[in-house]
UniProtKB/TrEMBL annotation:
Pfam families: Tic22. Signal peptide: none annotated. Residues 251-273 are annotated as: Disordered. Residues 251-261 have a biased composition (Polar residues). One of its GO terms (biological process) is protein transport. Gene3D superfamilies: 3.40.1350.100. PANTHER family: PROTEIN TIC 22, CHLOROPLASTIC. This is Tic22 family protein. It comes from the Bacteria.
Length: 273
């Protein structure tokens, strides 16, 4: 598990979408290879809480009664989409009362460690047939969950809660395709951005709204998107790029240039069609 807390690859102009609240690692035959999906996911930093040895803080999973004798229960660790929220959880633990000396020492050693999302995907794929494997429970940003809920309700959908990590895509119209952006050094490459931030998606929507008045923001079910990447063989999926949140882009900017900070700019001019 130590490999999870090291950079498995550089950040770059790659992206795609993702995951469930808990990813089990079970997947059908891939349309894209596992490596291609990993490379797409590697553009997004996520945040683990780790101890002094660099191992993720985890807890045992409760077994289903029917499966208790067949499979190990495994364990689960939280994966935060926000570095600030991960740090806030550590602060909460440190301020908790009634801890014994051993627990106090453990809590003091905790830290927030960023890893590329693709490394977690790779770990899940490598351990999917193992008992007692480590699973990952994703902690979406509450503000983005609220934004997703507001958009869904505004579109007339009756939604009580949003359990997954929301991703936002800008469409020319509800029955039209996704709006691409220009990317690359020459800005000649077209990419289809999927945003972790509603604010970023709104910025792109504002740019295209005058010419395409029916343009809107679609809230993507991230469980369905990862399934699409695995199942479908559509050419446009190669253009999909995942755009980290503003907070995570700020983090990427602090990395040495050798680790890259080439995530596409969310406000890049939309390609006119």
């Amino acid at each position: 598990m130590k490999s999870l807390v090291r950079w498995g690859t550089t950040f770059g102009l790659v992206g795609s979408t993702l995951l469930a609240t808990v990813i089990s690692g079970n997947a059908p035959v891939l349309a894209l290879t596992e490596q291609q999906i990993k490379e797409k996911l590697d553009s997004v930093p996520v945040y683990l809480i780790t101890n002094a040895q660099g191992l993720p803080l985890s807890r045992p999973l409760q077994q289903q009664a029917n499966n208790a004798q067949q499979k190990g229960a495994g364990s689960v660790t939280g994966v935060y989409m926000s570095q600030k929220e991960a740090q806030a959880f550590i602060s909460e633990l440190r301020n908790a009362k009634g801890q014994d000396a051993k627990m106090t020492e453990l809590v003091k050693s905790l830290q927030v460690t960023a890893v590329p999302l693709g490394v977690i995907y790779q770990q899940l794929q490598q351990t999917k047939n193992q008992q007692n494997r480590l699973l990952f429970a994703f902690k979406p940003v509450e503000q983005e969950v609220k934004g997703a809920m507001d958009l869904l309700k505004a579109s007339g959908q009756q939604v009580q809660q949003f359990k997954s990590v929301p991703v936002f895509a800008v469409r020319f119209a509800p029955d039209k395709g996704y709006v691409p952006i220009k990317a690359g050094a020459s800005e000649k490459q077209e990419m289809i951005p999927l945003f972790f931030s509603k604010q970023d998606a709104q910025g792109l929507l504002t740019q295209v709204k005058q010419k395409f008045p029916k343009a809107d923001i679609q809230v993507v079910d991230v469980d369905g998107v990862i399934k699409t990447l695995q199942d479908k063989n559509d050419k446009w999926l190669e253009q999909v790029v995942l755009v980290p949140s503003p907070e995570s882009r700020q983090y990427i900017q602090t990395l040495p240039k050798t680790e890259g900070n080439n995530a596409p700019k969310p406000n890049a001019p939309a390609q006119k069609k």
